[in-house]
């Protein structure tokens, strides 16, 4: 604005001062927001290794999220928006289950899935079998909280079951 003021030196200097002040405030606000954004980004990383994401970013190995775009339908037309694309994918990958379209194999599978799975030779697990299974479970790759959950499960199982 000050650059357009040509005939009045006093007004031009006044507007130049306003401009430089506003520009400085704007630059400071941008710097502050960048700092806040970077701090928020760094705080999003996991507590197990907070440097993973920062190293990936610095090395240029950060994975980009895939955006779902349009798809070509069997009739040659394209999907128009996200909702239409997801609906088309759902219809294609998980079609309606219609018994009229079943082959003999599918009919037999339906019959088998409806029969109870208990058989005469099934026997209950013994307490020792369950104890051995629980004691052998260890989430070695999990976080500390998960390992604590396994230990609690093992402790409670030992407390509530008799030893043989």
- Spatial extent as radius of gyration: 33 Å
Quaternary organisation of the protein chains:
single chain
Give the overall shape, derived from the CA principal axes.
Answer: flat
Count of runs of 4 or more consecutive helical residues: 6
Unreliable parts:
none
Number of folding domains? 3
Could you tell me the number of beta strands?
A: 0
| Largest sheet data | none
The N- and C-terminal alpha carbons lie at a distance of: 91 Å
Overall SS class = mainly alpha
Helix content: 55-70%
Summed over residues and divided by their number, the pLDDT gives a mean of 79
Concise account of the structure shown:
The chain has 164 residues and is mainly alpha-helical. The chain has six helices and no strands. The protein has helices spanning 9-43, 52-59, 82-93, 104-114, 127-136, 144-160.
What does this molecule look like?
It contains six helices and no strands. The chain is an all-alpha fold. It has three domains: 58 residues, no CATH class; 49 residues, no CATH class; 34 residues. The protein is flat and about 105 Å long.
Relevant terms:
mainly alpha, 57% helix, 164 residues
Topology, pairings included?
Layout: H1 9-43, H2 52-59, H3 82-93, H4 104-114, H5 127-136, H6 144-160
